[in-house]
Design brief:
about 45% helix, globular, Alpha-Beta Plaits, 16 strands, Rossmann fold, alpha/beta, 20 helices, 9-stranded mixed beta sheet, about 550 residues
């Protein structure tokens, strides 16, 4: 089958075709023909199977879909049949992990006989049509469109062991990755050259939110910031407090935390800020939130090497716990999947199905030791993506630390079906009046106007442009930024010197493609009938009578 038409798995529901943005990943083993030529077919098949197993596991880890295994290659979709708000980033993370996984396999195989396995990965993002094509006797769920073709060309041009992405993908992830500008590439079948980038790694601590080179003061959150500051003062006096910050995607939870952190750390060097952040694909990664918290305590990044993590853990445990450092070091080292020395390993002999209690006891020792040196702010971000093991561990830890000078902050979307919501609701039951719920609502019209003015510093912004931004964003600060970014990309707003100038007409501008994944993810999670109703309603417009919708739905079923 041609790489220009890619089948999705059979589990995707059959039905009418639909247009949607898709990130396509192609990966293949470089130089496989030459390697296979000098090997026994059965031996080569076994090696390819091992490579596929590791590559496929990586796709699954990041919520992608294995579309097809093709000889020595893999085709994967990110965004169909189910979308995620960060599909381009998931695909790039997947590609980077694929190259590492096959490098590790190659090193293992080299211990037996010389063999050099390298994977080339190509990624592109763009609109496709997905749906069932064929006849009654032979049909398949496919993705069709130029986006698939470009991804295949990217893979063919990638250097062995690297990830090559198109400019269409790079624009979604530029703030989050380290990359090298490869320049425009002439691709077979394309009239115009396609910009390409070789991704070399991830930027630590980057969020991808905000407009590059533009900063505005926080708008409309003064009361919430004041409340957090008040709670911190109470916790600092020795009465532990818990706060939950709840709001929709892009409403400003992370910005509020950033401003609060700057305010408490700026005036007092004794304040310790410990943070655990959930990953969008982390629900299937046991303890991933707790692990991020531990890394925050010992001061290492997620990309740190094992020796770096081991040294940092031992150094921190000795510093915090003195003579009692060895046992927490062993349990937290086990949690971090470190290779421990025999003495530390011996301390794990009692580690059984009650492992979670051992982990929590070690974490409690560490938190107590930190809080004995000064006030602590313990933050858990994006709990709507939390895993079950971390949720259980933190539900055990938090009440045990209630008597410490500790302010715990739980940040989450209002997703009551998420595993992490158990931590939010559990905290309510555990702490009662000691928990403060901070809800972030959309900005008012005046606040949104102030945000636009502060971001662009355009005093004479045309009313039509201002109204477009406000109507599209609906009071969501992130949406405001993305609509402005879209207008900049379309040339409707451009920079001249140190100021922004409104230029072209902005009529008819659609939803920014940077927000489409976020919206599609919410749609894909709806029940089938709700999705059907939404599709019909989308044809009518933003406002319509219920009777019209009912008649359209009836017409579709007759």
């Amino acid at each position: 089958m041609s790489r220009d038409v890619a089948p999705a798995p059979a589990r995707a529901a059959a039905g009418s075709s639909e247009r949607r943005p898709l990130t396509v990943l192609f990966a293949d083993i470089a130089g496989s023909t030459a390697i296979a030529e000098r090997m026994d077919p059965e031996d080569w098949t076994a090696i390819v199977s091992q490579a596929f197993a590791r590559m496929n596991a990586t796709v699954t880890r990041y919520g992608g879909t294995i579309a097809r295994l093709m000889g020595d290659g893999v085709l994967a979709f990110f965004g169909a049949p189910v979308a995620h708000e960060d599909d381009p980033l998931r695909a790039v993370r997947c590609g980077l992990d694929m190259t590492r996984a096959v490098d590790e396999l190659s090193a293992e195989l080299n211990a037996k006989e010389p063999i050099d396995l390298k994977v080339r990965v190509g990624i592109n993002t763009g609109p496709v049509v997905v749906g069932v094509v064929g006849t009654e006797s032979a049909s398949e769920y496919t993705a069709m469109g130029d986006a698939v073709n470009v991804a295949a060309r990217m893979q063919a041009l990638a250097r062995p062991g690297t990830v090559l992405v198109s400019g269409a993908t790079h624009r979604f992830i530029a703030a989050l990755v380290e990359s090298v500008d490869v320049g425009p590439l002439d691709l077979k079948g394309k009239t115009n050259a396609v910009q390409a980038y070789e991704v070399t790694g991830l930027k630590e601590g980057a969020t991808g939110r905000g407009l590059t080179g533009i900063h505005a003061p926080m708008i409309g959150r003064d009361a919430q910031l004041a409340r957090l500051t008040e709670l911190f003062g109470i916790a600092r006096a020795g009465q532990g407090r818990v706060a939950s910050i709840l709001g929709e995607p892009g409403i400003g939870k992370s910005r509020l935390l950033s401003e609060f952190r700057a305010s408490v750390e700026g005036g007092d060097s004794s304040v310790r800020w410990v943070e655990g952040r959930c990953l969008s694909y982390g629900q299937a990664l046991p303890y991933h939130l707790v692990l991020d918290m531990v890394r925050s305590v010992i001061g290492v990044s997620a990309s740190a090497s094992e020796p770096e993590v081991r040294d940092a853990l031992e150094r921190t445990m000795r510093e915090l716990l003195g003579d009692g450092w060895a046992e927490p070091y062993a349990y937290l080292g086990h949690l971090l999947s470190l290779r421990l020395d025999p003495e530390a390993q011996a301390r794990l002999s009692v580690l059984d199905r009650e492992a979670i209690k051992r982990y929590v006891a070690s974490l409690l020792q560490v938190v107590r030791a930190i809080s004995s040196r000064g006030p602590v702010v313990l933050v858990f971000e994006d709990l709507h993506w939390a895993d079950a093991a971390s949720t259980d561990a933190l539900l055990m830890l938090m009440p045990l630390a209630a008597d410490l000078p500790l302010l715990s902050i739980l940040s989450s979307r209002r997703d009551r079906d998420a595993v992490g919501w158990r931590l939010v609701s559990g905290a309510r039951d555990l702490f009662g009046d000691a928990l403060t719920e901070i809800r972030l609502d959309p900005l008012s019209s005046d606040q949104a106007r102030s945000l636009v003015a502060n971001l662009l510093e355009i005093e004479s912004l045309p009313q039509k442009t201002r109204d477009l931004i406000l109507s599209k964003a609906e009071g969501n600060p992130f949406f405001v930024e993305e609509v402005i970014r879209m207008l900049i990309d379309h040339g409707a707003i451009r920079r001249e010197g140190n100021s922004w100038i409104a230029t072209a007409s902005v009529g008819g501008v659609e939803i920014p493609d940077t927000l489409q994944g976020l919206l599609l993810e919410r749609i894909d999670r709806l029940p089938k009938e709700s999705r059907r109703t939404l599709r019909v309603a989308s044809v009518v417009g933003r406002q319509f009578g219920l009777t019209i919708l009912e008649r359209l739905l009836e017409a579709r079923t007759t």
